[in-house]
Model the fold of this input.
Amino acid sequence: MVGFLIAILSGALMSVQGVFNTRVTESSSIWTANVFVQFTAFLVCMAAWGITDRSSLLGVWKVEPKYMLLGGVMGAAITWTVIKSMDSLGPAKAVLFIVVAQIAAAYLIELFGMFGAEKQPWEWRKAIGMALAVAGIAIFKWE
Done:
């Protein structure tokens, strides 16, 4: 139940953040906004680490394979793509496409056991669910 509530909070925060970041670009630029977002996230994370954790910051270098360290690079790309999609599609349509893409990518990661995720068997109900999500896009865009 806690995981469910955290996931709902995550989705809501991502949508609100996307709108905020898109508005920040109106007063600056997309890369200035991205720098600000990543820098403030860094500050919050450092404060949280200092208050709650204090384990060695160098421990991240022990991760294998090393490409797993690209999360920050992806974070910058995510911020950029969310801003651009919200600017061109509007928040609701952008988030709808983003969420469907997340579901599809996550299912493929599970299906093929990519990046160390536990491999899951093909299930028709999940494929049907994905098809319904895509149909939801068509219905949402229908004018």
Remarks:
- Residues 3 and 104 are 20 Å apart (CA to CA).
- The mean pLDDT is 93.
- The chain has five helices and no strands.
